[in-house]
Amino acid sequence: MNRLFKGAKSFVFLTVLALVATLFPISTANAAYNLVWSDEFNGSSIDTNNWTFEIGTGSGGWGNNELEYYTNRPENARIENGNLVIEARKESYGGMNYTSARLKTQGKKSFKYGRIEARIKLPKGQGLWPAFWTLGADIGTVGWPKSGEIDIMEHVNNENNTHGYIHWDANGHASYGGPSHTIDVTQYHVYSIEWTPSAIKWFIDGVQFKEANIENNINSTEEFHKEHFILLNMAVGGNWPGSPDASTVFPAKMFVDYVRVYQDGGTPPPSGDIVSGGTYKLINVNSGKALDVASAGTAPGTNVQIWTDNGTGAQKWTIYRNADGSYKLINVNSALALDVAGSGTADGTNVQVWTDLGNGAQKWNIIRNADGSYKLINVNSGKALDVASSGTADGTNVQIWTDNGTGAQKWNLIRLQ
To answer: Any idea which residues carry the catalytic annotation?
Structure first.
């Protein structure tokens, strides 16, 4: 097996997997979640803040003896009428006879737990293998299958169902999963998983068809208690579907209306969303103005305010993730940390910059709001980064205040580098 490949269906299923699979009667998805990230594919081009392309044939046809060459050409992947279109074509390219596309959020967005879903319409055809799936974000260091893999939706050939699988390492490759109930895959359906610390459940249009028990790392399933990134692709050929034949219609198109990730309320953003070491400007939603160090000061105790966005270093903040999952914000101009004066906890306590001490007054939980903005909650005080009196004028003071969900406490984080 080779890294970054589509989980090969070797059909070697360990007997221990019966212990991992805990099957329950068919149910419907009903957990309460908040939207933390989505791509609605409504732009004119694929959003490179969300997606990157795999290119080429991988090692051994991505570990599965697949027959396509993956490209980043618009012929193979593009936005069209509010959909991501992944198109497999029969053509000579890069020494192969087929082309297609494989997109992933690796290094850009990654998630642990929640509901991950996409609304997708699929083609049928011998040798076609479209998929919506995840891989562990640490695959670059631990390899596959230790990274873990969750196949949310796979379809092969002309079947009237899809498949859901997990793959992991249990002193060797282990896998569990199986087919869904009967559906017409050529129509749009919402394919999803609900992923919690205790189980992974598979759904189509909210109807459950499979469940795996991962509670307490049963049978070495620790791979499913860490962050994963998302992939969308359409393979041609390979060990599972076999090769196309004369009946296979090309080009074959997979339409993805959206991809959405929901998590419990108050969930911090996935680490792929806030990039540790990335530089950002923070724009207040209410005022449209930037989080700014007064007069571009560099002395500890310099006041933090809002000011018209001007692109200076006083308005640039490098965000680092702390070991406890909180964040510190270091001002690019002064190299000082965003700090609550005197480690105060009272409403109205001033926010300033100060020498980086690593204490709770300089630690912030960054939480994504339903509208895509963020609130910053100070770890020491439990209070939100706030613009005084919901002010909109240049120089308005920034303070901490009880979290109230107003625009004065909402910030758009815009990555600069």
So the answer is: 149, 154
